[in-house]
Amino acid sequence: MEEFRKKTADEIEKDVIFSHAIKAGKRIYYMDVRKTRKEEMYLSITESKKIVSGEGEDQQVSFEKHKIFLYREDFSNFIDGLTKTIKFIHEAEKAAGIPSEPAADASADNTGDGASDFKIEF
Predict the structure, then answer these.
(1) In the prediction, which pLDDT does 68 show?
(2) Alpha-carbon distance 121 to 84, whole Å?
(3) End-to-end CA distance of the chain
(4) Which residues pair with 32 in a beta bridge?
(5) Is 2 inside any structural domain?
């Protein structure tokens, strides 16, 4: 039987196969592709928020992190739920007369209604 031990921070960082960072104000979202012990890939999404406490010389900076692990068998359901949720937000804001945020990449918005259209098959 294979023995499992906790990995060091360096070993965990080496497990990242692909990484993409999205900067959003005080937050950074990291999307990392990793492999399980059985060599199956999964997505690790980390929200990192900069927290500044104190003032002047007593000022301290820390980061609050939240993680989501998304496995291959859940990709389709996750994207479906995310798409529906984003579409709801756009429709509700439009009905309330709230102007939509301009898309960072206009070519990503194919629908013209401000909602991103995911076309990913698994």
Answers:
(1) 96
(2) 16
(3) 33
(4) 19, 44
(5) no
CATH number, domain with residue 29: 3.10.450.700
In angstroms, what CA-CA distances link 22 with 6, 58, 64, 92?
28, 30, 16, 25
Separation between Cα atoms, residue 31 and residue 88, nearest integer Å: 24
Q: Which residue has the higher pLDDT, 119 or 19?
A: 19
Residue located via tokens 């294979």: 2
Which residue range forms the structural domain that includes residue 85? 9-108
* CB hemisphere CA count around 21 (13 angstroms): 6
Residue carrying structure tokens 């990449």: 105
DSSP-assigned letter for residue 82:
H
Per the structure, how many domains does the chain have?
1
Does residue 119 lie in a domain region?
Answer: no
What's the pTM?
0.67
> Does 115 fall in a domain?
no
